[in-house]
Amino acid sequence: MNFIDQVKAKARASLKTIVLPEGDEPRTVRAAAAIKAEGIARPVLLGAAEAIRAVAEAQGADIAGIATIDPATSADAPRYAAMLHELRKAKGVTEEEAARLVADSMYFGIMMVKAGDADGLVSGAVHTTGDMLRPALQIIKTKPGCKVVSSSFLMDCPNRALGHNGLLVYSDCVVVPCPTAEELAHIAVSAAETARVLCGIDEPRVALLSFSTKGSAKHELVEKVRQATEIAHGLAPNLLLDGEMQFDAALIPEIGASKAPGSAVAGHANVLVFPDLQAGNIGYKITQRIGGAEAFAVLQGLAKPCNDLSRGCSAEDIVSTVALTAVQAQA
Ligand code: ACO
């Protein structure tokens, strides 16, 4: 069974409710029908019932039995508005502003997750990353003990000798442009958790990447990664984690053994933590486009799972992201 089929099988084992704010978007409607048919989750489509029905008909998607909620007329809207006002009044959100915000399907969906009326959220077929991330950061907030929300890309590589049977976790490739050493340490610990929960990697081996291995170069950027490694050891003393190290020292056993002798991670890493967003974003795209890996993105560190799609996504990509979100919600 390939990686994403394993994730779908896990999702089926304990059904979660996943809200899709872009409920009248054609790929989303087709995805919801497939999610229901395949028994991966209980999807909820947000939008006007009439509009959703019309899209389903045009797309030939069977949405019988799928819940739809219109934020504009929902009886839950006043409750969510009151909650949102309470949560954000210190930031200047008035009652009127809160009522206006929850009429927007993105905020309504985030409030469903916050209130426990949905287990997770997937959006981004239409909205940008920032459109979804900002309300999630403001309302859902970080998990206890985690200081920063970040992302992991789960890279399913054709070379099965790499990482965990070809699976590598890359982090952070989406969220934090220029992490501090402390933020980088939290990203590393979150990525290890993602590896456990979504990739079934019981013993994550986490490498904090740099252009230097174990002091081979001296530079303030290298020093930041070294400090992050130290902080991460303090946050998760039992985690197999090492740095700073170069990409090849992390992945290739002979190079790891020669550049970082005695390291339990070097040469055998399955979680790769990039020093900043430019490196991470470029790194995952190189692996995908030149290395032929399949890439699946998730957010990590949020108190409840919310995940972003690429605006170029297919209906099948939405199904996969819902399955990943459902498994995060199980954890
Ligand atoms: N973790 C936890 N909380 C955060 C984080 C974070 N990483 N970032 C911001 N916050 C919180 C802030 O503390 C603030 O909380 P508060 O309002 O309660 O005080 C709130 O979120 C908003 O913070 P801002 O600084 O106003 O948020 P900003 O407008 O800078 O947006 C965002 C944050 C959207 C995550 C920004 O960092 C960003 O744009 N990141 C890059 C996203 C991107 O374009 N990625 C690449 C493309 S995606 C791809 O290629 C697949």
Helix-strand category:
alpha/beta
* N- to C-terminal distance: 22 Å
**How would you write the strand order of the largest sheet?**
8-7-9-6-5-10
- Percent strand: 15-25%
Give the bound compounds: acetyl coenzyme *A
Number of helices: 13
Largest sheet: 6 strands, mixed
The protein's oligomeric status is single chain
Shape: globular
Residues in helix, % = 40-55%
Secondary-structure element pattern, one letter each: HEHEHEHHHEHEEHEHEHHEHEEH
Low-confidence parts: none
Q: What do the pLDDT scores average to? A: 97
Radius of gyration: 21 Å
DSSP E strands, number: 11
Write the layout of secondary structure elements.
Elements (H helix, E strand, L loop, with lengths): L2 H11 L3 E4 L5 H13 L3 E5 L2 H11 L7 E3 L7 H12 L6 H8 L2 H11 L4 E4 L5 H12 L9 E7 L10 E5 L9 H19 L5 E5 L10 H16 L4 E6 L1 H5 L1 H7 L11 E3 L3 H13 L4 E7 L5 E3 L6 H16 L1
Parallel strand pairs: 1-2, 1-4, 2-3, 4-11, 6-9, 7-8, 7-9
Antiparallel strand pairs: 5-6, 5-10
Helix pairs in contact: 1-13, 2-13, 4-5, 4-6, 6-7, 8-9
Bound molecules: acetyl coenzyme *A.
